[in-house]
Amino acid sequence: MKYEIKALDKKAKSATMETVHGTVETPLFMNVGTVAAIKGAVSTDDLKEIGCQVELSNTYHLHVRTGDKLIKEFGGLHEFMHWDRPILTDSGGFQVFSLAKLRKIKEEGVNFNSHIDGRKIFMGPEESMQIQSNLGSTIAMAFDECPPALAERKYIEASVARTTRWLQRCKTEMERLNSLEDTINKEQLLFAINQGGILDDIRIAHAKEISEMDLDGYAIGGLAVGESHEEMYHILDVTVEHLPQNKPTYLMGVGTPINILEAVERGVDFFDCVYPSRNGRHGHVYTNHGKLNLFNKKFELDKRPIEEGCNCPACRSYSRGYIRHLLKANEMLGMRLCVLHNLYFYNTMMSEIRTAIREGRYTEYKNNKIRTMLEG
Fold first, then answer.
1. Mean pLDDT to the nearest integer, 313-328
2. Cis amide linkage into residue 309, ω under 30° from 0
3. Which of 90, 182, 216, 302 is catalytic?
4. What is the pTM of this model?
């Protein structure tokens, strides 16, 4: 991997990142395809058309349903889903702690029951790395515990200490797997995850500790899980400066367009979130003048596209009134068009962000973007 910062505008950074699966430009938004597919009938060819640079899939979901060993038989996720650009796989840690039933945490890892069929599964750092190696993703995430943001200090301290020990085991296992002859992607990258709830001192100490391990990238996890936006921005203010600036910085599971704009200003350059696809499937679409609910009756006779000037597949050909009709009739095409529009909106916004940073006008761009979205 080669990560090179091309421009800095105060703390906002724009970089290029070369990987075995191609070069990407940051800041970027990873389009979330949890089970190797974007919900809403969006294909990988669609992803290229709407400007997606990195697709994100999930270790937990692919392990409990379909199976990583089966996907390895296809040559890994890239071959399985017909995608030749970078893929990041989430370690499964967040899902183990948020979805799994009857979980039991111990030093070795986590015993839990699948949320799908109840079968007993064990996952620890080595198992997560092995699954991600079978998937052959470009970037693998370290296996961590994601404590509730508002958990008590004593719990968070113990959790973060265990996450650090697990990170070392992830690193050791990744190095071993990348050396094996039958490994699909011998250049698989490993990103660490910073945790600590909303406790400044724990976040900072953990950021310093994991930075010394010299990994390929650094993520900030455990945010957007119950704390306020102001608390999240504060944690970014105090944490990002203690992570290596010359490595990618990834804010996990965030978020709204405004969240992203604020986080970029604080030095973050990787993002992912289910909002654009999830909201799209419910008829909620993003525009530069705020979010629209296309189920609203006022759009029944609206012949305009979702947003004037938008070049997404939906806006090029279809009216708000027609898309509303599809949604009301429960036709899959309606959801598909809304998801395509939302992902295009996010990917286009990231392109605008990169340009603004490289032209030294990011603060102006951010303020104008937020103002127009809030004013409607």
1. 98
2. no
3. 90
4. 0.95
